[in-house]
Amino acid sequence: MCSAATLDGLPSNVRVRSFAAPTQALRGARFEAGLAGELFRGRPDALLAHMSPVYALLAAPVLRPLGVPVLLWFTQQRGGPNLARAARVVDAILSVDARSVPLASSKIRAIGHGVDTSMFACAPRPPAEGSLRLLSLGRYSDVKGHDVAVRALGSLPHAELTVRGEEATPADVHVRARLEKLAQDLGVADRVQLLDAVPRSQVPELFAAADVVVNATHGASADKVVFEALSSCVPVIAASPVFDSLLPAALRFADGDPDALAVAARAAVALTEEDRRGLRARVEAEHSVGHWADEVLAMAR
Fold first, then answer.
1. How many structural domains are present in the chain?
2. Alpha-carbon distance 151 to 197, whole Å?
3. What is the C-alpha separation between 26 and 128, in angstroms, rounded?
4. 259 lies in the same domain as 210
5. Coil, helix or strand at residue 41
6. Same domain, residue pair 42 and 179
7. Which domain holds residue 204?
8. Is the residue at 255 inside a domain?
9. Under DSSP, is residue 73 helix (H, G, I), strand (E, B) or coil?
10. pTM (two decimals)
11. Fewer CB within 10 Å, N side or C side of the chain?
């Protein structure tokens, strides 16, 4: 059940119920009605609420008396009051890492991410020659740390930075303008491109054109782009502590430190093809869609 969905290409074992409505109250009522309709078809094995704790809160009073496990998938730095409420009624909170849930709870289970690695080709990558092409993906939001990558160009005189992101809020528009001014003030505007987001289908092309993907997001984030880039055998450098079990120490840098980012970028370029394929293998083993689904089913049982 969801508010909206793209129905093209769904497998035969997937059905979609929409509870879209113009008001929150009506959406809640339609969600409950859709849940009741599913129960008429038979007792489900479990309910998985995805990223929205309110779904778990709405479902728990109906499903818990029937002994149906209620699970919540959540990986975000901000939770809000509904997350704390949901933690009291769900059987488990599933996430990439225990640190990727902004809540202390014994119900948190780290199961890895769910990346469709088949979308990303692992083609041989020739050594970087001339300029070093850095790519940073994510909203034009302060939390994404694009400014740290811009500042790092002072220590990487032969590097070029491309940022691809959307302006989802008025604040994002101001962040993008500040990044433009920062690049000008630092004298690196000729080596920075601040571009719009692209459709998801074009992300593999962005990876193919980059030497290093930069993820300077502040805090304990588990940005999916890190796993996707590694699936393309593109070296990734990241600040989040969540990646300490995935990325070698040389590819991680202190949050907000442009000089450390520059050092990590140089280390990333030095990776061998074997190193890059090894990182992709880690993603396939621990963060693929198949592994994620197996873990969810195990929790449901």
1. 2
2. 21
3. 55
4. yes
5. coil
6. no
7. 117-286
8. yes
9. strand
10. 0.89
11. C
- Tens digits of per-residue pLDDT, 187-230? 999 999 999 999 988 999 999 999 999 999 999 999 999 999 99
Question: What pLDDT is attached to residue 177?
Answer: 97
205 lies in the same domain as 253: yes
pLDDT band at 4 (very low <50, low <70, confident <90, very high): confident
The model's confidence at residue 127, banded by pLDDT at 50, 70 and 90, is low
- Compute the distance between CA of residue 72 and CA of residue 172 in angstroms, rounded to an integer: 29
278-289 per-position pLDDT tens digit? 999 999 999 999
Give the Cα-Cα-Cα angle 27, 86, 64 (nearest 5 degrees).
85
Look up the CATH number of the domain holding residue 184: 3.40.50.2000
| 258 within some domain | yes
266 and 145 share one domain? yes
Mark whether 215 and 78 lie in a shared domain.
no
pLDDT 10s digits, 72-94: 999 988 888 999 999 999 999 99
- In-domain check, residue 70: yes
Same domain, 46 and 131: no
In a domain? residue 173? yes
Per the CB < 8 A criterion, the answer to whether 261 and 237 are in contact is yes
Cα-trace Rg, the chain: 21
User: What average pLDDT does the chain have?
Assistant: 93
Within this chain, do residues 99 and 204 fall inside the same structural domain, yes or no? no
Six-digit token string for 199: 């459709």
Residues 71 and 141 in one domain: no
Contact 206, 212 (CB under 8 A): no
Which two tokens mark 101?
């849930």
Q: Residues with Cβ < 8 Å from 91, sequence gap 6 or more?
A: 69, 70, 71, 107, 299
For residue 174 the two structure tokens come to 């101001």
pLDDT in tens, 42-60: 999 999 999 999 999 999 9
